[in-house]
Design a protein that fits this description.
The structure holds two protein chains of two kinds.
Chain A (H helix, E strand, L loop, with lengths): L4 H19 L9 H11 L3 H14 L14 H19 L5 H10 L3 H28 L3 H10 L2 H25 L4 H25 L5 H22 L2
Helix pairs in contact in A: 1-2, 1-4, 1-8, 2-3, 2-4, 3-4, 3-9, 4-5, 4-6, 4-8, 5-9, 6-7
Chain B lengths: L9 H11 L13 H15 L3 H11 L10 H16 L6 H36 L1 H4 L2 H28 L3 H7 L2 H31 L1 H23 L4 H18 L1
Helix pairs in contact in B: 1-2, 2-3, 2-4, 4-5, 4-7, 5-7, 5-9, 9-10, 10-11
Classes of the chains: A mainly alpha, B mainly alpha.
Chain lengths: ~240, ~260
Amino acid sequence: MHVGLGHVVLAGLWGALATLERRAFLQAMFSRPLVAATGMGLILGQLQTGLYLGMVLELFYLGTASLGAALPENDTLAATGTTAAAATMAFQTGGGGTPALWSLSLLLFAGLGLLGRAVDHRLEGYSSRLSVHGLELAEHGELERAVRQNLWGIWPYAVAYFFLNAACAAVGLGIGKLVSELPLLALRGLAWAFPAMASVAAAVAARGSHARNAAVWGLAGAVGMTLWTLVLAWVQG
Amino acid sequence: MIGPGTHLPRSVLTRVFLRSLLLQASWNPKGMQNLGLVYALYPALEILYPEPEKRREAVQRHLTFFNTHPYVAAAIVGGVLYHEERIAAGEEDARRVTEFKGALMGPLAALGDGFFWLSLRPAAGALSAALVPWLGAWAAVLFLLLYNVVHFTLRFRFFRMGLVLGDRLVEAVGRARLPTRGARLRAVAAASAGAAAAYLGFEFGAEQGGVGGWLLAGGCLALGALSYVLAARKVPTAALALLAALLAGCLGAWL
C-alpha cells in the first residue's frame, strides 16, 4: 500500500478533531488515548497498532485530570501523535504493527504529552486576549460579537494540533525505512520492552485510580486474571 | 409573578443546552469559562431582555470570572436562566444570580471532578482497556458507551434541575450520592488495571513461548508490582516506564 501526503493529512485532521473534542466541544472522551489512538489506527489502516498503543497510553494516563486551573500533560497528543508515527513506520517497514515497533514509537515520542501541555499553555494567552476583547465589545454594546469571541478560541488549537500530528506521521514515514534495518537483537529487545512498559502503565493506572485500598483491588484483579489464565491453559492442555 | 420552573420556549432552552457544550472553547486563565457561559446563555438573554441596555448589563454580569466542571456547569447554566427570568420580571435583584454562581461553582466543580474525572473516567477507561484482548476495537466503543450514557444523562438532568429548582438544585444534586458511587467506581478502576497488568504479561509471554515466555510473564508481573510501590513513593512514572523498557529490552536481547 502506498503511503504519503494523504496519510500525513489524515493524521493531522484526526489529531485536530480529537484535540477540539478534548478542549473546546463536548468532552465526550473521543479524545481519550484508547479512542483517539484506535481511531488514528483505523484511519491510517493500522488498527491493531492504534488499539495496543491506545490501551497502554490509556492506562498510563488514567489518573491524570484537568482539575481547576491545572494543566495536565496532553494525553490526546501523546496518543494520536505516537500512533500516527507508529502507523506510518509500520507501512514503511512493510511488516505491519509489531510490539517492537510500538515500543520504539512509545520511546521516541514519549515527550509528546509534555509538548502538548506547553502548546496548550501558549495558546491560553490568545484565549485571555479574546476574553479581554469580549469585555470591551460588550462595553460598547456589540453583544453578538462579544459572545462570538468564544468561538474564536477554537481555531488556534485546530491548526496547531493539525500540524503537530501531521509532523508525527511525517517523522514516522521518514524513519520507517531505518527501523527495518535495525539488527535482530535490537528488535527482540524492543519486543520485550512493550509488555514491560504496558505492565508499568497498568501499575501506574492502579495507583492513579485514586481508590481507597488501590493496592488490594489491583492485586485482586491481577490474581483473578492469573487464575483465569492458568485455568484456561489447563483446560486447553 | 413567575411560577415554578421556566417559561422560556423549548427551542431556546435546546439552543442554550447545545451551546453549553462549547463552554470551554475559549478557556483562559483570566475569566476561565466566562466567554463560554455568555455564549451559552445569549439566546435566552436575547428573549428575556429586548431592551439593548438591559441586555448589555446581563451580558456584562456573566462576563466575569466563572469556572466549574464542564458537565456540572449545566446545572449552573439552568439555574442562571431560572434567576435571569425572575430578574427580567423585576422579582429579583441582579445580585442574586451573581451570588448563585459564586456560591455553587466551587462545590459543584469539586463534585464533578471527583465523580467524572477521578472515578467514572478511570473506571470506564481501565475496564475497557482490560477488555481490549477480547473485544478488540469494540473496547473503544464500549468505553464511549459506558462513559457517555452516564455523562449525557446526568448533564441533561443537571440542566433540568437548575431550570426547575434554582437554588434548591443543591439538595437534588446531593441526593444523587455521587461521592459514594465514585468510590465504588475507583475500586473497579484499580481492579481492572491489575487484571490488565496480569493479562499483558501472560499474553506476550505466551507469544514468546518456552522458558523465555515464562520469564517475560513473571518479569512483567514483578515489574508491575515494583512500579506500583515506586509510583507510590513519587518516582516519576515516565522514568519508571523507561527503566522497565531498558531492563526488559536488555534481557530480551540477551536471552
